[in-house]
């Protein structure tokens, strides 16, 4: 782990460590190390820890603490070598600052935008008066030729179990295990020819052979039902996300209406300017 965190080994610098501080006395601003006049704080350690890859979770905090202090000290030593901040870093920090501050506002909106009442209302609006959607459960067998399909249909008509015949002859790999059972599906889930054949059946009926792009089928309708509405708990996370997103958009619309915003006129810039990294080297 320390090969990745402390990439230089021991630094030749005297560290002024906070000693004797009880856990309850420590704050994010507590100084844990200094490089010259630059302080490294507990808050910086916490952020550095949060950004470590997941595999570092196997190490105890005693190891991570030392490694992170070393990392931040080494980074500061290198950073102090530069007399001026390169343009690329300045613009990167500006974007990072903007993004982090925006994310903080979004998080605040997410935390306050959705009440239990609003969530329940969203569920009711979505599902209380939703139209009934029929679903079908069918089985099929799939073969390559019409002759094979006719022969399979004849075996079923003679009393053989549909699932047994499907397991015996179908070229559909899943059907060889399930006896052709396709489970529940709704309108539009199957190709048109298959759906038409199923809709023409009564429960328990077996279709005549019919062709689709996959080959020749024989199908039977096992069950019909009205699609059950999802439970509140199932869709609450999705509904919450939608409400939060709507709240952010509404707030952005409000901010936009109140702000003075200038955007580039059409044609004012060559869009390829976004690839001109060399501009950062001219400053």
What report would you give on this structure?
The protein has 283 residues and is α+β, with helices and mostly antiparallel strands. Residues 1-5 and 7-20 have low confidence and may be disordered. Helix 4 (87-113) packs across helix 10, helix 5 packs across helix 10 and helix 6 packs antiparallel against helix 7. The radius of gyration is 33 Å and the shape is elongated. It has ten helices and six strands. Helix content is 47%, strand content 14%. It has helices at 2-5, 42-50, 61-79, 87-113, 116-127, 146-157, 162-169, 173-178, 192-199, 232-258, and strands spanning 31-35, 38-41, 134-143, 181-186, 210-212, 215-226. A hairpin with a 2-residue loop joins strand 5 (210-212) and strand 6. The strands form two sheets. A four-stranded antiparallel beta sheet has the order 4-3-6-5. It has a two-stranded antiparallel sheet with strand order 1-2.
